[in-house]
Amino acid sequence: MSIITGNAVVFTQGGPTAVINASWVGVVEGLMNAKEITGIYGSMHGIDGILNEDFVDLRAQSVATLQAVSRTPATALLSTRHKPNADDNKKMLEIFKKYNIRYVFGAGGNDTSESLDIINDAAKSIEYELRLFHVAKTVDNDLMENDHTPGYASAARYVANAFRGVDLDNQCFGGVYLGVCMGRHAGFLTAASALGRTAPDSGPHLVYVPEMAFDVAQFVKDVEAVYKKYGRCVIAVSEGIEDKNHTPILQLLSTGNLEADSHGNVQLSGTGALADALIGKIKEHLEGNGTVKKLRARGDTFGYLQRSFPDQSPVDYAETIGLGKFAAQMALSGNIDGSVAMQRVSNAPYKMEYKLVKLKSVAGKTRHLPREHVNAAGNNVTDAFIKWGKPLIGELYQFGVLDTSKKVAKK
């Protein structure tokens, strides 16, 4: 179809990331000088801002402001998890007409892609011509058609750094440490805990992802084996681990009523209950069988820290700005709709390219950690994952190692 003239609106939905601002700033930069674009609006609180006509003039922002915002974690446009219904669609289309909005860009994950697909179908049903694009985003890295998504690499960088730091802490006194990472259905973020390993005995020693069936009895045996070998054990666990019947482990171990999120899903990690329950099982096993008299053990839940920690992966930032610009380019090239995705061309050297894919191939679907990225026992990642993930997080600060052979002679 031909190029159309009108206003553009950009918005963000769902959970924030360290680079989500870079997504929409990239779109704005790509549209800024286009003669077809009469105005560029930022919708506050996602589609809620459209429904409430709460727009910010993004073309009026200075270059310095947009540059600074692009380096800022979370989303300056704020967010929502509102999924549009038929009445919402009708009202949004009336507002699009009122403001002559012809270009729509939404940065988000699975739910956002599905919401955009719904809006797109509604516009087509009344023959209102739109250019509508989904800009991939999610720390979970669970979007189809993508090698990795904006936000994942920065979150993975945080997780890798956190685990290599806590591994050194664990070396000081020994014992067991367990960290629960985000990932209801996909284990990419938990797997990233292994990207900071520096030696064969470095933690995490065990990594558990939702793609593999989790057996509590085998889990405590795995921990026992590592503890007997090293006198300590560091463990990374996905919040979404399930048994062979796909029952969440938290649900199996819980003794009380579990909270639900806004979508009706069992809240898996926000309360710290999973970490506490697993640490309890470890202590019960190791103390019960005499491996240790009193186990030093700690469980933590990483939670929101993973997704908006202010330490962007340089790779993530550059690719995210580029993806936003690519979305603008696709819209200005006469494409009607789609999802802009990132796909890897080669691993050594690392090379990635942008691609426009069908919106329906992403909407509401979930990508999982490839089977070859998890070992046969289901309790660790493989070298294939390390090779895949290392290029994404950027260089990590190198820790120093004390030369303990330099002893002072005893007197």
Give your account of this protein's structure.
The protein is an alpha/beta fold. It folds into two domains: 196 residues, Rossmann fold (3-Layer(aba) Sandwich); 177 residues, Rossmann fold. The chain has a seven-stranded mixed β-sheet, with helices on both faces. A four-stranded parallel β-sheet has the order 7-8-6-9, with helices on both faces. Helix 5 links the parallel strand 4 and strand 5. Helix 1 runs parallel beside helix 12 and helix 8 packs across helix 10. The protein is elongated and about 80 Å long. The protein starts with 5 loop residues before the first strand and ends in an 18-residue tail after the last helix.
Instruction: Let me know the number of strands.
Output: 11
Instruction: Determine the strand fraction and express it as a percent band.
Output: 15-25%
What letter string, H or E per element, gives the SSE order?
EHEHEHHEHEHEHEHEHHEHHEEH
Number of domains: 2
Indicate the radius of gyration in whole angstroms. Answer: 23 Å
**Structural class estimated from helices and strands:** alpha/beta
Assign the CATH architecture of the largest domain: 3-Layer(aba) Sandwich
From the spread of the alpha carbons, the general shape counts as elongated
What percent of the residues sit in helical stretches (DSSP H or I)?
Answer: 25-40%
| CATH class category of the largest domain | Alpha Beta
| Largest sheet geometry | 7 strands, mixed
Instruction: Identify the quaternary structure here.
Output: single chain
How many individual helices? 13
Please name the CATH topology of the largest domain. Answer: Rossmann fold
Please state the average pLDDT score.
Answer: 94
Low-confidence stretches: none
